[in-house]
Inverse folding.
């Protein structure tokens, strides 16, 4: 009788443990689903990366700058909800290729990208300057484009520099994710030159690394470029956002955001 009673208690104990386990699994699943639903509640995911002064992401993940303010206002006017997340540009390009509903500020137009991206109206035409940095303790001589041959050039993965440079398969390049790694590689002598379209971002990374021996080559490349937002081909939200951005150009809102009145 005692053995039978013990067996009943054991079965009851096992059933209780299983119920508790199932309860916690259900709670965990509900929490995960709720978090996913909350994140998915936004129409668009906007990607930020540190490109001062146009877009900034501080150490606490706080996003700012004109591109951030302009997109928030355009989304408000278009009745579109967005959620911001800091993400490397190379990853943003992958998600655009995958057809995700994301929007990526400050994306240069190229023929290759135009296959899978719809670009918004240009909110501002500006001067794009590509510069080349090296270490003064390991001097290089770059006075014209052809002088780049023979050096190992650090570039940011996924970044468009200018047509000739991007298409040149003879140049020796080392693609890396960000300016921090470019600075470290240059300081360590693992690359000879850094190609940069974002001097301010490179300077900030160099200061953080306490690296001061970088200098600018005599050769640089300058062109007028558009300031665009990138969305996937056929995005449900493209026309509404593009219309809002065009209206903000027409009514002077974008000029005011870039050049606020004193």
């Amino acid at each position: 009788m005692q053995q039978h009673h013990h067996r009943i208690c054991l079965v009851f104990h096992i059933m209780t443990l299983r119920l508790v386990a199932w309860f916690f699994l259900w709670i965990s699943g509900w929490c995960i689903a709720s978090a996913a639903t909350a994140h998915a509640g936004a129409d668009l995911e906007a990607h930020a990366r540190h490109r001062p002064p146009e877009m900034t992401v501080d150490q606490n993940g706080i996003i700012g700058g004109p591109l951030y303010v302009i997109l928030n206002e355009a989304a408000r006017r278009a009745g579109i909800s967005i959620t911001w997340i800091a993400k490397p540009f190379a990853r943003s390009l992958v998600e655009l290729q995958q057809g995700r509903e994301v929007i990526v500020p400050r994306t240069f137009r190229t023929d290759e990208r135009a296959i899978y991206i719809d670009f918004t109206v240009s909110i501002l035409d500006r001067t794009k300057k590509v510069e080349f940095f090296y270490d003064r303790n390991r001097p290089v001589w770059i006075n014209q484009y052809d002088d780049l041959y023979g050096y190992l050039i650090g570039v940011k993965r996924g970044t468009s520099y200018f047509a000739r440079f991007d298409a040149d398969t003879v140049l020796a390049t080392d693609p890396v994710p960000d300016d921090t790694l470019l600075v470290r590689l240059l300081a360590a002598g693992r690359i000879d030159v850094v190609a940069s379209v974002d001097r301010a971002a490179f300077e900030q990374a160099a200061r953080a690394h306490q690296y001061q021996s970088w200098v600018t080559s005599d050769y640089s490349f300058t062109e007028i470029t558009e300031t665009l937002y990138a969305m996937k081909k056929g995005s449900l939200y493209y026309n509404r956002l593009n219309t809002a951005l065009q209206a903000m150009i027409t009514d002077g809102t974008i000029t005011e955001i870039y050049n606020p009145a004193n």
